[in-house]
Amino acid sequence: MSFDIQNPIIEPRTTNHEPRKAVCFVTLGCKVNQTESEAMAQLFREAEYQVVSSQEEADVVVVNTCTVTNTGDSKSRQIIRRMIKAHPDSVMVVMGCYAQTAPGEILGIEGVDLVLGTQDRSKILEWIERVKAEKAPQNAVRGIWDAEEFEELPQLSEEHRTRAMLKIQEGCNQFCTYCIIPYARGPLRSRRPENAIAEARRLVEEGYPEIVLTGIHTGFYGQDLGDEWHLARLIGELDKIPGLRRLRLSSIEPMEYTDELIESIVLSEKVCPHVHIPLQSGSDNVLARMNRPYNLKEYRELLEKLRQRIPGLAVTTDIIVGFPGETDEDHESTIRFAESCYFSGIHVFPYSKRKGTPAADYPDQVLKKLKDQRVKELLVVARDSQLRFSRRFIGDSVEVLIERVDPQGCGVGHTPHYIQVEIPSPENGKGWSAGEFVTLVLKENNIKLS
Question: What pLDDT, on the 0 to 100 scale, is given for residue 407?
């Protein structure tokens, strides 16, 4: 549900005197989008393009869009128009979820040359050549329900990353009443295990110490493969890769935690003791209207089962506030339930209408003022929960993967439990390096709340 403009993919300008074609990317939305933009950037590199920032001149501009809310669509249109104005002579490509669901709407924006959805992205260079040859905008979007296989994109080759996102799954069959993603991403498709394992091995060989398994419905990995592959088995295979220090799981839905998956996490020496399990509401009435396939009792039982098997487990979650028909009693139930779950982090989102979803037409839409107030109340719970969990580790020796160094020389990174830690610059003046592991005794002033 999060919506964001991700950091641009850029690399230093070549010092070669021969001019090189240039491409820039602007990515909106989720981490899956960012992973796909990075893969697309590699495809352009292989075609001898240089990846530059959106402030530099570029032959091709790629805007990877988000459509999770109406606001996402609006923001995508704003960015598209801004890029067209800034790069009037560039080939303007719009791809991603918004492009998949509304290609005609995007083609109606003067200056757009190519619309590409959430499939056939490996053919982007061919489509760009067609745009140039025919000197006319092109619509390359196919019906998403025609998609039958996971689309393999180029393997990533970024040198400045410390944590690699390994996409293993695409699509969603859940159809929650507030969500447009099934219409943008299509049915469940899993990456062939040999391809996922091969890329993981290559990433480790290139020096990535941590890999995050990601997808749209990551926990349903393998359901469509038909040869007894599932997420638990994939974890077992990845766990064998020499040199891999950490394996982290992205969001996995409550109903996706099979006994085999839990056992694979317990037995692994590399899977981080941190899981993200979306809750969305602490009211059974609201969960039913959302078409979420579990109730609060089942959710609580899952947490108890996981924590019994994995002591000290960090559990983060998502909660939507102000869903249509949410009463004061529903909201109070959510507050109480969230407090009782002892989450290590809560992502709080105000409900936002998304045209094309059933919930957008539900009666009893909650007023913005009331939603804003409820968000504030839940954010207090979120902050208290995060601080309470993090403080449990004060005085313990923790391992931190340095992900970046701030202008003051402080190293910033995460522990295996996904506690964000800030470490002052060392007194010896050597400084920290991204990708470095640091072990320290955690103190209150090391904890960096999000």
Answer: 85
pLDDT at 245 over 70: yes
Sign of CA dihedral 426, 430, 431, 433: negative
* Single-letter amino acid code for the residue at 240: K
Residue 228 has pLDDT above 90, yes or no: no
Q: Could you count the other beta carbons within 10 Å of the beta carbon of residue 339?
A: 14
Contact 226, 207 (CB under 8 A): no
Confidence of residue 355 (pLDDT cuts 50, 70, 90): confident
Distance CA 23, CA 92 (A): 10
Is pLDDT at 391 greater than 80 in this prediction?
A: yes
Residue 306 pLDDT > 50: yes
Question: Which position has the higher pLDDT, 408 or 94?
Answer: 94
pLDDT value, residue 422: 95
* Backbone angles phi and psi of 260, in degrees to 5: -65, -40
DSSP-assigned beta bridge partners for residue 167: 214
Cβ(320)–Cβ(351) under 8 Å?
Answer: yes
pTM here is 0.86
- DSSP-derived letter for residue 366 is P
Residue 144 CB partners (closer than 8 Å, separation 6+): 100, 117, 118, 119, 183, 184, 185, 186
Output DSSP code: residue 393: T
Cα–Cα distance list, 106 to 21, 124, 305, 370 (Å): 25, 17, 47, 33
Give Cα 223 distance to the centre of its chain: 21
Rounded Cα gap, residues 277 and 318, in angstroms: 7
What CA–CA distance (Å, rounded) separates 440 from 437? 10
Mean pLDDT of 9-30: 71
Indicate if the pLDDT at residue 8 is higher than 60. no
Give 355-363's long-range contacts (Cβ < 8 A, gap of 24+).
355/70, 356/101, 356/180, 356/183, 357/177, 357/178, 357/179, 357/180, 358/177, 359/177, 359/178, 359/289, 359/290, 359/323, 359/324, 362/177, 362/289, 362/324, 362/325, 363/324, 363/325
φ/ψ of residue 334, rounded to 5: -65, -45
DSSP code of 146?
A: G
Rounded to whole angstroms, the Cα distance separating 173 from 175 reads: 6
pLDDT band at 15 (very low <50, low <70, confident <90, very high): very low
Q: Could you tell me the two tokens for 241?
A: 């890769």
Residue from 277, 170, 280 nearest 216 by CA: 170
